[in-house]
Design goal:
Layout: E1 10-14, E2 25-31, H1 35-42, E3 43-44, E4 55-62, E5 69-78, E6 89-95, H2 99-109, E7 114-116, H3 121-128, H4 134-144, H5 149-159, H6 162-187, H7 196-225, E8 227-233, H8 239-247, E9 265-271, E10 274-280, H9 290-305, E11 308-314, H10 321-329, E12 336-341, E13 365-366, H11 375-385, H12 400-421, H13 426-444, H14 450-457
Parallel strand pairs: 1-7, 8-10, 8-11, 11-12, 12-13
Antiparallel strand pairs: 1-2, 2-6, 3-4, 4-5, 5-6, 9-10
Helix pairs in contact: 4-5, 6-7, 6-13, 7-12, 12-13
């Protein structure tokens, strides 16, 4: 993507998802100084209708070569500054699908004074023109890509300014301390003595809240990207049956033959509001089958990338040496959950007397993939293993970019405390304080650069 801080060009793009046979309406958005001119050149409207701001007009888009109608459209006019981008905006509401809307867009882009919008360029212009801040723009992108109701709620919190408000308050606290320190650098003899302990107290307060925001943001990623859960187990312990039970679909083939799962199967479900990406791995067993070997290699990669690994074993057989070998394949720092399956084959009264009570690794959850008994306990234990159940109470959640910047700010504040410990002059304190303030400004966009814009909006879809 190529970005520019100047916004004097007129841009256009399809602003809605399009697919053959899907959606009754498709919207083409035009933004910039020539938006109304472009709209008038494309849409034929009968009568002497005025293109006033915040009005809706009815017309047709006509192929200029053969004089045939391409589509009938509604035209929405929103003149600057009362529009999403802060510029003149014209939206053409066409019929949905693919062909008609693409033909209308071609007519728009054929105009000499308009070009195709880059990904996220409408939101970028809204930020540059002060209509929204950077965190609100990112919230729009996250709302479009939300995979669960909670993800949508967190995105709306960002759009409504929840992140901007929290970060701005912390930044203002640091600005207050910086102004006090800079005043002492220049006029220390003329001002009351500044106590280092009070400055440090404020810095500690800000750093603590930043660290909390960072941790909350990590948990919020489960809603945005989904919790990756790798299912492993020896042949015929019921991994695929467990996946089918949680998916409510027959996603995996289930047979009595060992090695049925020969590839990495992936399925996404939502459990207690958290998107879960279930990875059903091929069994880790010696094999000469080339296809099964490739599946095992994929399974090993899944173990590395998983947020949590669920090791399924057969309750009837108890914990075996093969189960132990699988446990040792799980990366040491990856959370793990041991699920004893086939509880339906063990009598309730004999469960405690079973060999499991004396095993070195008793199950965290006792489950039956056949009957579903223990499913709710399994779901809650799974979420608890990654602290994902705490996500339900999140009000805002920083994304990757925002967390990185908050971490840089927190590290700068930590350096400030080192300066204080060494009893260095006030001007040394200001260096790291400025770094922290700059990083927080980059979160909201108050410290905006073309590089920041490039990094943020390159991830947006075209039309947003």
């Amino acid at each position: 993507m190529t970005t520019a801080l100047a916004t004097d060009e007129t841009i256009a793009a399809i602003a809605t998802a399009i697919a053959a046979g899907q959606g009754g309406i498709a919207i083409i958005r035009i933004s910039g100084p020539e938006a109304v001119v472009v709209g008038k050149s494309v849409v034929t409207i009968s009568g002497n209708k005025k293109w006033d701001s915040h009005t809706v007009l009815y017309g047709h888009v006509i192929d200029t070569k053969n004089k045939t109608h391409i589509d009938e459209v509604l035209v929405l006019i929103m003149k600057a500054p009362r529009s999403f981008t802060g510029e003149d905006v014209v939206e053409l509401h066409c019929h949905g699908g693919v062909i008609a809307v693409q033909q209308v867009l071609e007519r728009v882009l054929a105009h000499a004074k308009v070009r195709r919008a880059f990904p996220g360029e409408f939101c970028q212009r809204a930020v540059l023109n002060g209509r929204i801040d950077l965190t609100q723009a990112e919230g729009i992108s996250e709302l479009v890509g939300a995979r669960s109701q909670q993800a949508a709620q967190l995105a709306m919190a960002g759009i409504n300014g929840g992140i901007q408000l929290r970060i701005t308050k912390l930044r203002e606290k640091l600005l207050d301390q910086l102004s006090e320190l800079e005043a002492r650098v220049d006029f220390e003899d003329e001002l009351p003595q500044l106590e280092a302990s009070k400055v440090l107290s404020e810095i500690n307060t800000v750093q603590t809240e930043l660290d909390e925001l960072i941790e909350e943001g990590k948990r919020g990623e489960y809603f945005r990207k989904g919790l990756k859960v790798a299912l492993i187990g020896c042949p015929n312990v019921g991994k695929s049956s467990l996946l089918n039970k949680l998916s409510r679909k027959e996603k995996a083939i289930v047979t009595d033959l060992p090695g049925t799962t020969r590839d990495l199967l992936e399925n996404e479900v939502v459990l207690s509001g958290v998107p879960i990406i279930l990875l059903d791995t091929a069994g880790f067993r010696p094999t000469k089958d080339k296809i099964e070997k490739l599946g095992i290699e994929k399974s090993q990669q899944a173990l590395i990338s998983a947020d949590v690994v669920v090791l399924v074993f057969d309750l009837c057989a108890g914990w075996t040496n093969d189960d132990q070998k699988l446990l040792e394949k799980i990366p040491q720092n990856t959370p793990k959950l041991l699920v004893g399956n086939k509880s339906d084959l063990i009598e309730e009264g004999n469960m405690i007397e079973n060999n499991l009570a004396r095993e070195k690794f008793p199950p965290h959850v006792i489950f039956s993939a056949l009957t579903g008994k223990g499913e709710e306990v399994l779901i809650q234990t799974l979420l608890g293993t990654c602290n994902a159940e705490q996500c339900q109470s999140l009000e805002v959640a920083l994304n990757d970019r925002q967390r990185d910047l908050a971490g840089i700010a927190s590290a700068a504040l930590e350096r400030t405390k080192d300066v204080a410990e060494n009893q260095l002059p006030w001007d040394f304190w200001t260096i790291d304080l400025r770094d922290a303030i700059k990083s927080l400004g980059e979160i909201t966009g108050s410290e905006i650069t073309e590089e920041v814009l490039e990094r943020v909006f390159a991830r947006f879809c075209i039309g947003k």
